[in-house]
Amino acid sequence: MTRRRVAALYGTALLGLTTCLASCGGQDGDGPFPPVRCFAERPAPLALVVGARSNVPETRFPDITSPLLRLAAKSGEEISLIRVDGRPNVVKLPPFRTTAKNAKAKDAALDDYIKGTVQPALAGQGANSVHARVAEADDLTALTLAAAAVPPGGNIIMLDSGLQTTAPLDFRQPGQFSAEPDEIVKFLTDRKLLPDLHDRNVMLSGFGYAAAPQPTLSQEWRTEVIAQWTAIVKAGGGCVTVDAEPNTGEALPGLPPVTPVKLPPPTTFSGCGDTALTDANKVGFVKNTDRFADPAGAKSTLSRLAAVLTKGGQPVRLIGSTSSEGGDAINQPLSERRAERVEKELVALGVAAGRITATGAGAHLEGREKDIGPGGELLPGPAAANRKVVVRLPKCPN
User: Fold this and answer.
1) What's the pTM value of the predicted model, to 2 decimals?
2) First and final C-alpha spacing in the chain
3) Domain over 274-392 is classified CATH 3.30.1330.60
4) 138: exposed, middle or buried (C-beta count within 10 Å: 0-12, 13-18, 19+)?
5) Which pLDDT tens digit goes with each residue over 189-238?
6) How far apart are CA 371 and CA 348, in angstroms?
7) Per residue in 255-279, pLDDT tens?
8) Residue ranges of the domains in the chain?
């Protein structure tokens, strides 16, 4: 990319970062306060968690940002900016002060404060810049810092894709997209890593939207990312709102790199080799049972598999697998029942029963993901990846 192109993109990005603060909501009293769940028209401390980093679109502030910011500043409440990168940091902005005596002069002074103090920090200028400085992304720490920066009753707006690339919620881990939100909450709670968000109001904006070189998420995976972060906020005691507006712009140039997260590949059935049936392709199970979590989705996927199998006469082996919790006495029969559940569905879809063998490997299937952490904790992503039924057909020809 040429220097001229980088400069043009950078100028556009700065405009995107600052335009809303100058125009969204306007002067105090210029119209009704935006009706947004969790947020009320009252002064409160405000934390802006800003993912101005690689692999996410340039920041688009939701409409609620300006009125909350103006209310906080005008009332002398603390305004904090939190940088989202591999080592998040908090910037406490100096409070707004004015000696103006009338409302018009006070509003003019407030405009000067936003333009001279807040906007430069958001636009990557000066020592208070919230542009990423460290490689990778640690959203959980950024949210935890925001929770500590505002007291109960405070407001938090978090702007990022939600694709963390550091432990303990590393989306680069196998199965992280399919990890159950309640398991993630338990994992964080057990490790005392759940942010304390009691009585805080949190908006998640831009979650699930990415920019090159990060591959674009499908609506399915975007929904999973939002569900996981929503569960974290709720479990921490916060009131959560999701900004539904899409953000599909380009990333800011020249910032530290962030490793792209590989998305679960689409499932194809070739009539040979191994294929894993998991939550990622809708053939997941309700925890500790052999019931499909998404019966309609499972039937759709297995219908595609059955259509391939009925064209040939190859033997079909189904091997159930589980995550590591529970022990062999529970996992072995559970893995067998899940394989048998898939077998039953395939037979109903027209595959001859005599061609199918259903077995279980418990938590010992070869090539499985390591789903136990160094402290003996179950890792939600790898655990989700291990809960599967493998369809094993004859090896594909070289």
Assistant:
1) 0.90
2) 41
3) yes
4) buried
5) 999 999 999 999 999 999 999 999 999 999 999 999 999 999 999 999 99
6) 34
7) 999 999 999 988 889 889 999 999 9
8) 3-243, 274-392
